[in-house]
Amino acid sequence: MQRVVSTIWLVAGLLVAAAPMSLAQNLSVQPLTVIGTLPAADWEAYRSRFVEDNGRVVDNANGNISHSEGQGYGLLLSLAADDRVTFEKIWSFTFTELLIRDDGLVSWKWDPAAKPHVTDRNNATDGDILIAYALAKAGEAWKDQRYTDAARKLAKAIGKSTLGREGSAIFLLPGAQGFAAGERADGPVINLSYWVFEAFPALASLAPEYEWNRVWREGVTLLQQATSSRVRLPADWISIQSRMQTKPAEGFPPEFGYNSLRIPLYLLRAGMTDLEWLRALKVRWSAENEGIAVVNVVTGQVRERLDDKGYAIISAALACTLDGTPVPEALKTFEPQLYYPSTLYLMTKSWLGEKHPQCV
Amino acid sequence: MRLASSAISIAVLVLGFAAIAQQVGPGANQPPAAPSSATPPNGQQPQVDESALRYFASQGDTRRVNAEIARLRALYPNWTPPSDLSQLSSGPTVPVDPLIDRLWNLYKEDRIAEVRAAIAERQTSDPNWKPPAELTTALESTEARRRLVNASDSGQWRTVLSVATDNPNLLTCVNVDVLWRVAEAFAKTEQTNRTRDVYTYLLTNCANPGERLATLQKALSLLPENQVTDLLQFERKTGDEPDNFDSIREELARRRVERASNDSTMTASAEDLAVVERLMRNSNDAGPVLVLGWYNFHHGNPARALELFKTALDRNGGNKAAEGYAMSLRALERLQEAETFAYDWRDKAPENTKVYLDIATALLSQDPPPRLESRIVARIVPVVTSQRFADGAQALGWYSYNTSQFATSRDWFRQALAWKADDEPSAYGLALSTQRLNDRAGFNAIVTQWRNRSERIADLAAGTTPTRGAQQRVTSAQTMRSVPVSNEPSRVVVEQRDMQIAPAMRTTTVETRTSGRRSCIMTRSAEGLAPDAALNLGWCLMEANRPLEAVGAFDQAIRLGSGRTREEAAYGKSLAYLRKNMTSEAAVAAAQTPQNGQRRVELGASILAQRALAAYRDGRYVETLLALSERSRIVPEQNDLMLIRGWSYYKLGRYNDAEKVFRAVQRTGYSDEASVGLNAVLEATTSVRQ
Question: Residue B580's pLDDT is what?
């Protein structure tokens, strides 16, 4: 009995695995302009609330700490708002306070209440990618070689220290330490929301010696794997010890949570809309009236509904892209409260401004 | 390999650049201000960042010039303002750019990000505009210094070294802190010779005496001592502010004595010892006293060591001082004092526990056997038991044996073997005691097990060794070892129960017995005996492990005796029933005459423990828990009973409670049994979930 069941699973796994492989081949990453796509008023509301004069982006829901991810978003959004002054400040802080690791990556956590301020010197790969990407785009847009040079160094460091390999697969590790096969019982462990798909062409031109195209395609393949179960949502943290049968990583709640919310946003921003999973997600988020929520990926149970506009606008962007539905009026005004949803709001809105102005 | 060689080139670069920076520093681009002033005899004037000052002077802004002079003076007390400022201000007027003014002000206030932002802003409107070169240099230096400091705070040593290499202008006496951090980075990347080079550079070139001394202090923590000693040659004995590196010499001497203090084969020089003596006299610190204490202890002078450890205790020297004091008493063979003292400190640290157990073992193992107060023996028992100290159990075995408590000695030897299965002396003790007790089955079992491993046990079996009255002295090994434990928790616990409760109480009886010990085996009945004789008979029968007959004797003593005798007899009767696991009878006996407080607690606790164990054996877990709860109201619950409590919860399916209890036991060191319990809980709960 046991054997029969596992054989069936194996066959199912192979079938599911076969489909996305070919799908990933058909997708491509569409470049974005970014600069000049964010309304000045929206940016000003964000900047005055979350960016300090010394260039520190403050996560006000999290003890007012800063992190590499926030610095990366701050850089990208100042570029979107064509605000070189703020970009320069955020970069100055990032460079002097966080870009201090021996391997050239960015320490992820900075706490104003602690001494020394860097309370976790580990990197977070999504922060590194966002910063490198923003620097690369800014260097191009503002013709500043300093940004391009820094972007190249960081891209090479990401390629050198955060790519994992298992057999023929090559994927992003969430950090340079602690997630690889030998470092955890259930390793390697990944986080699909760390694939900032739009950044990969930039990384490929900065550090062409690494196989960035294979990395982002593997991201799509793993996404397909992780969304093949009944609930069809990926957990934030996933063990890919068996690539054919990914499962929620140990020690993390088996939830589609605050991390994974960004996956559809990153897919949309990269123009990778031709994915069946996005349609399924749209149905869940809009038609079925569940809204955006933190969901247990095993049971399908909703743990927490998220009603901040910053989350809702991702759902609206999905509807706009797939069905041409305009963004509801209520979502068009920006009243920043908390760092994270406010950031997602502007990341979504700047992209809508660039690609789907008719919806906003 | 590559790392090492490139690191060396970094070091050369670093030092090269630093030296260059020093040479072309102030002297090269400005005339000496006041030749007689602060410049130290063999050091140069520190290189101070005067760029803002010069800018303000060139703008003729006297107010800002004065403010900046005040700021720099506060930062660098030895600094003198350049004398050419007035020339600058009277020179050809440069058209005033208010932005430059703002930038320097922001820079002065350390608002680096805002300087960068303002430059970027200007360049957006005027792409060909460039900030003054001095400002760019100043900014880059500040950013580099911040990165270097942050990287060093986070232990990112290679970043520290690469930033230093890229920014050699940081490596001057103005930034001694940066030099120290670079030196540390070299040390942390296994290049202590480069560390020494940085310190040498600093001591050769930088003048501030406080910073020079601090450099030596840092060297003490990072460099081998011979290299620190080499650096002492740079001490400046003359000049306005001579160095005083005596504290470094003293520390080096203290360390030499400290090393010798733990190694009896090393001798410290008289000079070094004198230095530590002086350190001891000149401070209230326990540190140097402890060093001297251990030195004396390990160099054949325990009497002096004892005095020193006493002083260390008075200076709040804590656990280490207590350890030394106890060990000195023991070395002086003042074992009873040692036991009393060490007992008070036994829980302070693992070392203190070990010292206590060693002393207690030595105390029990004296030859001829000492006459110990029962409370002393009684308090040794729980420490030996909780630490599962086999040598201690063995010593208790010999002590009991040598005071003719053969049943007790048999139990202790068994316990010692349970904790340390290959302990031949305990096996021998067990063979002797079973023989004395006429316990044929026990004797044969031990002989079968050990005949091939122990000649003397084989001899005993062959009847070649006279045992009667033999005082078998065995030197105990003084080391604590971990003990292999059976995997079947409840059985172990139930067997231990006797060990934990009974021996302490049985030894309390040692002194109350006076005569009739040996004759009781012949005596058939207590009838007709006087109360005291009946009482003695009772104890004697207890010792012969004939508790039911002992009950008869104690009854006689209760019937006829009065006062203490009655109380004593009732106590004995309770113990007798306890030994037969007849809990209810024991309880009745205990109630027969009023007992004093301590005994009442002891008896009550024992009775409840046995009641709990009996209930547990019969599978009545609710009753087990009731008895344990009642017991825990009068005495703290010991680990073995906590395990019984845990298993009762487990059997009742109360897994959360069981887990809590096992975790608590685990924390107190009974990790093996607790782990068995925790595994069982885990298994039970996961199978429930599936």
Answer: 73
Query: Which of A53, A86, A88 has the most B C-beta neighbours within 10 Å, making it the best mutation to test the interface with B?
Result: A88
Distance, CA of B655 to CA of B670 (rounded, Å)? 19
Please answer whether residues A342 and A49 qualify as being in contact, where contact means their C-beta atoms are separated by less than 8 angstroms: yes
What ipTM was reported for this prediction? Answer: 0.91
Is the Cβ of A299 closer than 8 Å to some Cβ of chain B? no
DSSP state of B369: P
Check if the beta carbon of residue B450 is closer than 8 Å to that of residue B424. yes
Instruction: Please report the DSSP string for B664-689 in residue order.
Output: HHHHTT-HHHHHHHHHHHHHHHHHHH
User: Of A88, A126, A198, A218, which residue is the catalytic one?
Assistant: A126
Q: How far is CA B2 from CA B161, B164, B187, in A?
A: 15, 19, 17
B431, B447 in Cβ contact below 8 A? yes
Contact A162, A173 (CB under 8 A): yes
- Chain B residues in contact with A121 by the CB 8 A cut-off are 154-156
Q: Give the residue with greater pLDDT, A161 vs B579.
A: A161
Mean of the per-residue pLDDT values of chain A: 92
User: Over the stretch B616-636, which tens digit does the pLDDT of each residue have?
Assistant: 888 888 888 888 888 887 777
Contact A315, A286 (CB under 8 A): yes
Q: In this predicted model, what pLDDT tens digit does every residue of B470-495 receive, in sequence order?
A: 333 333 332 222 222 223 232 222 22
- Alpha-carbon distances of B578 from B339, B433, B613, rounded to whole Å: 31, 22, 12
Which numeric CATH code is attached to A30-359? 1.50.10.10
Radius of gyration of chain B (CA): 40
* C-alpha–C-alpha distance, residues A106 and A91, integer Å: 12
Rounded-to-integer distance, Cα B277 and Cα B246, Å? 15
- Residue of chain A whose alpha carbon sits nearest to that of B151: A100
Buried b / exposed e across B204-218, counting CB within 10 Å, b at 16+? ebbbbbebbbebbeb
Kindly list the domain boundaries of chain A, sorted by start residue. Answer: 30-359
At A5, the pLDDT band (50, 70, 90 cuts) reads very low
Domains and CATH numbers, chain B: 251-466 (1.25.40.10)
| Distance separating alpha carbons of residues B65 and B57, to the nearest angstrom | 6
